[in-house]
Each structure stands twice: as structure tokens, then as C-alpha cells.
Design brief:
One of its GO terms (biological process) is lipid homeostasis. InterPro entries: ACOX_C_alpha1 (IPR055060), Acyl-CoA_ox_N (IPR029320), Acyl-CoA_Oxase/DH_mid-dom_sf (IPR046373), Acyl-CoA_oxidase (IPR012258), Acyl-CoA_oxidase_C (IPR002655), AcylCo_DH-like_C (IPR036250), AcylCoA_DH/ox_N_sf (IPR037069), AcylCoA_DH/oxidase_NM_dom_sf (IPR009100). This is Acyl-coenzyme A oxidase. It is found in: Peroxisome. It is a single chain. By secondary structure, this protein is of the alpha+beta class. 55% of the residues lie in helices and 8% in strands. It is built from 25 helices and eleven strands. It has helices at 11-19, 24-31, 35-49, 65-88, 94-101, 105-109, 117-130, 133-144, 294-324, 343-378, 385-413, 425-434, 442-461, 472-478, 488-515, 520-526, 528-550, 554-557, 560-580, 582-588, 593-610, 614-619, 625-628, 639-648, 659-670, and strands spanning 150-153, 169-173, 178-182, 190-191, 202-211, 214-224, 239-243, 256-260, 263-266, 276-277, 283-284. Helix 11 (385-413) crosses helix 17 and helix 15 (488-515) runs parallel beside helix 19. Bound molecules: ligand LCNEECSX and flavin-adenine dinucleotide (FAD).
Length: 673
């Protein structure tokens, strides 16, 4: 019997949708920031997803490495042609770029990643954030129109985290008013930049600046890599360039390597908004050396929404599949149930739905804070930079880690079929787990936050004023333990108490070690497990608190039926966080065994309450099938038909007798007859 799509929605999914107690369209409006934004999102999606030129004729899974790249570049050019047209119509806002570059619309039209993404995510923002007005005039127009394509070349084969240890040099020659770029060792080769391999002809290169025989640390330079006409690497052998080879995911991103042999660039190519080199080689310091790190902060901030997007896709796939999949009766006398009725399945899936909401709210919070602080920086006010750095570092670390764990958990929640590329969960995992490493490896970022928390704790100890994100430390100094209060505000206080005590202990252990004669750095390294954990605890308390505060007036903005379900998810997030940190809550918050049993009961009650709304809720994320790209997660729930149709695409299925039979199996199988 030939397998065809039925054209009908799976009856189990139909029933789920009938059970939903709120209006899904209202949820979509709330989640996407209002009616106007939702309409724009849908128009944009139709424009890209219905374009015949942007359809996937062959699944990329069956393509070679080279084909994936060539196909990706072709698609990227088509995508940006459309973006250009939108801009010309005056419809080219930043939202278009956010959508097309990230894990929602972008991943729908280009699953293996976009080899031109770093051009927009880092090359352009670096020129904007670190170039002078003249440099912006010189570069931004051509870069914005994509007449040149750039990347961000910071990481080297030997150094990614410790960027003060980068080895690429840019030595100023006052005679010619040029910088000479060199890669003195194998470890100094740039390694990793997205699109560097074959897709960019310019790069922001981060290199150690030498002038008048002195090193002034790392600075950004615009360097041409390839001829604009021929695309040949410039000046024969002086630039060595290529791509680094296959990776776990992001297979189409064309990450590259790059080495310099006495490559000369004009003085004006050093980005000089902050630090400067004058014609005679005189170096003028930046108001703060960390301003060079600004692009990384920008990307850490935008990654948060990207993670919410990827997780929303994974959880939509797993929720719909869990409603369609029937396996094992609960009552042996009755038929097999939908797997979503097994409570352990609910526990795998629903907390991940909750995380999407929390991450989305956090993305709004951090984006607003980022914009406020950067507008202050433009006025020379640097006071709030450390707080933004501290909170964006831990949010990036915790949210990428949770999203990555979440996608993997959801893949497993789909059983064997989740392991198929046709589920789109393996590819999604490849994209998400990369974010745990890029833009600052997660442990390193937690330690950056911890560094700030140690300072904040010492300020709290002497009664100094504290910024809002660490204000809770003041109360914790006065009160080291609490009476357990199970309300949401009580949970927030308890999580803050856990964070404050972990910060206190880490601080005390660093100080004790110093008293034993260790240097500050050694004492910090010896205490670094506790330091990283204190940053994690701080972040988790922050996530619950900010979600609670950002939804304080929920009832006045949405219907009671929607507010009720949203509150259930926020409460589930808070309760699940408590269950994960139960040991810490016992240690520091006055939680008792009775309290734990109450939390367990509450968790189970919440799963039961959420159960009838789960499918409706993920429908409210409003993700088109073409973006989900999943046989398991399509809106109609025709899972088995889609899995079959995908399997039929395998090149091995195009011929009933494989070549390998004549070539290898037949001679082998008959050789011992
Ligand atoms: C016009 C354009 C419009 C287009 C619109 C585009 C919109 C696109 C939007 C969305 C798109 C969707 C999202 C897509 C996202 C996916 C894209 C994928 C691309 C990924 C590409 C990946 C790129 C990379 O990975 S680039 C390389 C990143 N590398 C790192 O992150 C390295 C990590 N290491 C470090 O950051 C540092 O070395 C360090 C911080 C760990 C240590 O530095 P060090 O100098 O040694 O510092 P330390 O001594 O510890 O501290 C010194 C003081 O500096 C403070 N500090 C450190 N960093 C910062 C900072 N960034 N900002 C502020 N302050 C900082 C630190 O706290 C210390 O302060 P203190 O007071 O002395 O304690
Ligand atoms: C998909 C992808 C895309 C990327 N794109 C770009 C790009 O466009 N441009 C670019 O410049 N770079 C890019 N990178 C590089 C990326 O930024 C680095 O890989 C990242 O910053 C981590 O650095 P590393 O690889 O040197 O890891 P390492 O620092 O070598 O980390 C290895 C281990 O050492 C630990 N470690 C290191 N230092 C410390 C410390 N001080 N304390 C405690 N533990 C420590 C880490 O926690 C980790 O466990 C990309 C990477 C990936 C995976």
C-alpha cells in the first residue's frame, strides 16, 4: 500500500486541542509581543517559507560536506536578496535579522546554519560599537548591503577563553603608517570564526597591538582576506586561509582558519572608537580596556532569545509526539495510553515548556538592560557595565546549558524516533550545544559572574549600596536562615538565601586560603567549584524572580484563562528549581521534610493541571511546520506517514539491490563455500 499523508489531523491531537481551556491565538499574541508583532512574524514567515526557491529538495542529511556548504551559500544569498528587497521597501528592521539569523525562521530555511550569520551578528556590530564615525562611514554601507562579507576572527588554535593570551601580532610601522600582521606560531592561527573558511573577504581580527616596541594588549583590526573580484586569498601566500572541517553540528557554517605572514593594513583599519594609535605610533588608551569585549556581550545577550526559540521548537515536537504516540496501558485491562499520560513523560516535557516562557521573559529583560547600558556607554557613563557583564555571563551560561539539556531530554522523550534526523532533534541539539561553548565557554562565564559576586559580597559586608541584581545580599547578611515559606515570593527568598550563602562560603573559602598563604589567584582557583556554583545559584534565583516580576500584572494584560495557565508554568518552573536544589534548600533555607513532600505534591498537581493544555500551549508558540522540520512534530500529527515518507528519501532505497551486494557481500559470503 503506497504511503501518503492523510490530509487529516490525528484524532488524538484533535481531542487535545478541544480540551484546551484558553485561546491559543491569544497565547500566540502574548508570546510574540502583541498583535502587530505576531502579524509581522507571520508575514515574514510566509514570505520566506512559501518561496519555491527556498524549499529543501533533498534533505541535507544525504549531502556531502562540500554540497552542504555550497547549498548553504546558495540559500544564504537567496535569503539576503529577500532581506535586501524588504529593506528597500522600508520593511527591513532589526526584527528581520533576528528572525532570519537565529533558531526560528533562520533554522527553518537553512537547517545546518548560515555561513553569513557572523557577518551580521559580529562583524557589523563590532564596526558599529568600536569604529569611529569615519570608520563607520567607510565600512558600514558596503557591509550592510553585503558588498563585502566579514567575520569575527578572535579565537586561535591555542587560545579561545584567555583572550589576553592571543598570539597574533599587529605591529605598527610609522614609516608607512601601516600595521603588519603576523601569526608567529601554529597556535596563533585563527581557528573557528564562522564563515571564515570560504565565505568572507574581510574579518575583524583581534590581535596584540605593538607600537614603539611596546605591547598594548588586544585590539580589533579590519583586515581584507580575499580579493573582492577574484575571491583569491590576498597577496599570494601572505594570508593562509581555509575551513576547519566537519563538526558535531552547524555543518554549513564554514568555520575557518587563518594565518598571516607580514600582511600590511593601513593605520585607519584599527577600530579606534576606544583606543587609538596616532600617525607617529603614539598609543592613546581607551577609557576602559573591556570596551574591546563589547561585541561578545552583545552576542551573549541575543543568544538568550535564540535558546528560547530552539527550545520552543524541541518542546513543540516532543509535546505533539507525546500526544500522538501510544505505548503501554496504565491499567492493564485498558488500551495503550498516549505517552503524555505517563506522569514521568509529563515531568520530562512540561518543565521544558516552562523554561521556554522563562527564557523568553528573560530575553526581553536582558535586551532592555543591554540597550539602556549601551546608551549610557555612548555618553561615557560606564557605571552599569560590570552589572550587565555579570548578569549576561551567568544567563548565557545557565540558559544555554538548560536549553541543551532540555533538547537532549526531549529527544529521549521521543524514544527511538527522536534519534532519527527526521525528528529534527539531533540537528537542533547540534545547534544548541554549540552555544555552551561559543561566545565564552560556560564555566568561564560563571566564573566571571562569581568574580563580580565576590566584590558585591565584600561591599555588602561593609554596608555599601548594591545594584538591583545583587541587592538581596544585604538581607542575607542579616539573616542566614529562614522559615520555609512555600509561596512564590517565599521560594524566591529561599533561592536567594541559597545563592547568598553559597556566595558567602565561596568568599570565606577564598579568604581562608589567602590567610593560609595562598595568592589570591591560587585561592580563587582552589575555590572555583564553589565559585561557579555560587554564580549558578545566583542566576537561578534571578530567573525565578525576574519571571515573577515581569508577569506581576499578567491578569490585567491577558484573559484569566490564559493567565491561569501561564501562572501554572511559572509556578512549575519555581517548584522544579526547588526540587533540583533540594540539598541546598535544606542547608540554607529552613526547608523541612514536610516542605519537600509538599513540593513534590505540588509538582505532581501542576503536571496534572497542565496536562489538558499542553498541546494547546505549544500550538501557541505558533511555529510553522516548515520551521519545525520534524516528522514527529507536524501540526497534523501524521507521525508514522511522515517517518515513512522521509525514510523513502534515503538514496539506499532508490535501488532494491545495493551495489555493496555484488561488490563485497556476495564474494565474501561465498568465499568459504
Ligand atoms: C548593525 C547590525 C544589525 C544587525 C542586527 C543583527 C542582530 C542579530 C541578532 C540576533 C541573531 C540571532 C542570534 C544568533 C546567535 C547565533 C549566532 C552564532 C554566532 C556564534 C559565533 C561565535 C562567536 C565567538 O565565539 S567569538 C569568540 C568569543 N570568545 C569569548 O567569548 C572569549 C571568552 N573570554 C573572555 O571573554 C575573556 O577572556 C574573559 C572575560 C574570560 C577574561 O578576560 P580578561 O581580560 O582576562 O578578564 P579578567 O581579568 O577576568 O577581567 C578583567 C575585567 O574585565 C571585566 N570584563 C571581562 N569581560 C567583560 C565584558 N565583556 N564586558 C565588561 N567587562 C568585562 C571583568 O569582569 C573584570 O572586571 P574587574 O572589575 O576587574 O573584576
Ligand atoms: C560552533 C562554534 C562557533 C564559533 N565561532 C567563533 C567565531 O565566529 N569567532 C571566534 O573568534 N571564535 C569562535 N568560536 C570559538 C569559541 O569562542 C571558543 O571555542 C570558546 O570561547 C572556548 O574557548 P576554547 O575553545 O579555547 O576552550 P578552552 O578555554 O580551551 O576550554 C577547555 C576547557 O578548559 C576550561 N578552562 C579554560 N580556562 C579556564 C579557567 N580560567 N578556569 C577554569 N577553567 C578553564 C574550560 O572551562 C573548558 O572546560 C566558535 C566556537 C564554536 C564551537
Amino acid at each position: 500500500m503506497p504511503i501518503k499523508l492523510k490530509g487529516e489531523v490525528n484524532p488524538d491531537l484533535n481531542n487535545e486541542r478541544k480540551k484546551c481551556s484558553f485561546n491559543v491565538e491569544e497565547m500566540a499574541r502574548w508570546y510574540h509581543g502583541g498583535e502587530k508583532k505576531l502579524a509581522e512574524k507571520r508575514q515574514r514567515e510566509t514570505l520566506f517559507l512559501d518561496d519555491p526557491d527556498l524549499q529543501d529538495d533533498i534533505p541535507t542529511s544525504y549531502m556531502s560536506h562540500k554540497e552542504i556548504y555550497e547549498y548553504g551559500v546558495g540559500k544564504a544569498c537567496k535569503i539576503f536578496t529577500k532581506i535586501r528587497a524588504l529593506q528597500e521597501e522600508g520593511k527591513g528592521g532589526v526584527d528581520n535579522f533576528m528572525a532570519i539569523l537565529g533558531g526560528m525562521l533562520g533554522s527553518g530555511v537553512l537547517k545546518e546554519g548560515n555561513p553569513m550569520a557572523v557577518h551580521f551578528v559580529m562583524f557589523l556590530p563590532t564596526i558599529l560599537g568600536q569604529g569611529t564615525t569615519e570608520q563607520q562611514v567607510e565600512w558600514l554601507g558596503r557591509a550592510w548591503s553585503m558588498n563585502i562579507l566579514g567575520t569575527y576572527a578572535q579565537t586561535e588554535l591555542g587560545h579561545g577563553t584567555f583572550i589576553r593570551g592571543l598570539e597574533t601580532t599587529a605591529t605598527y610601522d610609522p614609516k608607512t603608517e601601516e600595521f603588519i600582521l603576523n601569526s608567529p606560531t601554529i597556535t596563533s592561527y585563527k581557528w573557528w570564526p564562522g564563515g571564515l573558511g570560504h565565505t568572507s573577504n574581510y574579518a575583524i581580527v583581534v590581535a596584540q597591538l605593538y607600537t614603539k616596541g611596546q605591547c598594548h594588549g588586544i585590539h580589533p583590526f579590519i583586515v581584507q582576506l580575499r580579493d573582492e573580484e577574484t575571491w583569491a586569498p590576498i597577496k599570494g601566500k601572505s594570508v593562509e586561509i581555509g575551513e576547519i572541517g566537519p563538526k558535531l553540528g552547524m555543518k554549513g557554517v564554514n568555520n575557518g582558519f587563518l594565518g598571516f605572514d607580514n600582511v600590511r593594513i593601513p593605520r585607519k583599519n584599527m577600530l579606534m572608537k576606544n583606543a587609538k594609535v596616532l600617525e607617529d605610533g603614539t598609543y592613546i588608551k581607551a577609557p576602559s580596556s573591556v570596551l574591546t569585549y563589547g561585541t561578545m556581550m552583545f552576542v551573549r545577550v541575543v543568544i538568550i532569545r535564540d535558546m528560547a526559540n530552539y527550545l520552543s521548537k524541541a518542546v513543540t515536537i516532543a509535546t505533539r509526539y507525546s500526544a500522538v504516540r501510544r505505548q503501554s496501558p496504565i491499567d492493564p485491562a485498558k488500551p495503550e495510553v498516549q505517552v503524555i499520560d505517563h506522569v514521568t513523560q509529563q515531568y520530562k516535557v512540561f518543565p521544558n515548556i516552562a523554561k521556554v516562557i522563562i527564557f523568553q521573559l528573560t530575553a526581553d529583560y536582558i535586551w532592555n538592560l543591554y540597550n539602556q547600558v549601551t546608551s549610557e556607554l555612548d555618553k561615557g557613563q560606564l557605571e552599569r557595565l560590570p552589572e550587565l557583564h555579570a548578569i549576561s555571563c551567568c544567563l548565557k551560561a545557565v540558559i544555554t546549558q538548560d536549553a541543551s539539556n532540555g533538547v537532549e531530554q526531549l529527544r529521549m522523550a521521543c524514544g527511538g524516533h527522536g534519534y532519527m534526523e527526521a525528528s529534527n532533534l539531533p540537528n537542533t541539539y547540534g545547534m544548541v550545544t554549540a552555544a555552551c561553548t561559543y561566545e565564552g565557554e560556560n564555566t568561564i562565564l560563571l566564573l566571571q559572574t562569581a568574580r563580580y559576586l565576590m566584590k558585591s559580597w565584600s561591599q555588602a559586608l561593609v554596608g555599601d549600596a548594591l545594584v538591583p541584581t545583587v541587592e538581596y545580599l544585604r538581607d542575607a547578611i542579616k539573616k542566614r536562615s529562614n522559615k520555609w515559606d512555600p509561596s512564590i515570593t517565599g521560594i524566591i527568598k529561599a533561592l536567594q538565601l541559597v545563592a547568598a550563602n553559597k556566595i558567602r562560603l565561596a568568599y570565606e573559602h577564598v579568604e581562608n586560603r589567602k590567610k593560609l598563604g595562598y595568592s589570591h589567584e591560587d585561592a580563587t582557583n582552589l575555590s572555583s567549584i564553589e565559585l561557579a556554583q555560587s554564580a549558578d545559584a545566583h542566576c537561578r534565583a534571578f530567573l525565578v524572580q525576574s519571571a515573577y516580576e515581569m508577569t506581576r500584572d499578567l491578569e490585567s494584560t491577558v484573559s484569566t484563562s490564559l493567565a491561569t495557565v501561564l501562572r501554572q508554568f511559572i509556578e512549575l518552573y519555581a517548584v522544579e528549581t526547588c526540587m533540583k536544589y533540594i540539598g541546598d534548600l535544606f542547608r540554607f533555607s529552613g526547608l523541612t521534610e514536610d516542605g519537600v513532600q509538599e513540593l513534590q505534591q505540588r509538582l505532581e498537581d501542576l503536571l496534572t493541571k497542565i496536562r489538558p493544555n499542553a498541546v494547546g500551549f505549544v500550538d501557541g508558540f505558533d511555529i510553522p511546520d516548515k520551521i519545525l522540520s520534524s516528522a514527529l512534530g507536524a501540526y497534523d500529527g501524521n507521525v508514522y506517514e511522515r517517518l515513512f515518507l522521509e525514510a523513502k528519501k534515503s538514496p539506499l532505497n532508490q535501488d532494491p539491490i545495493p551495489k555493496a551486494f555484488e561488490l563485497h557481500m556476495k564474494p565474501f559470503m561465498r568465499s568459504n563455500l
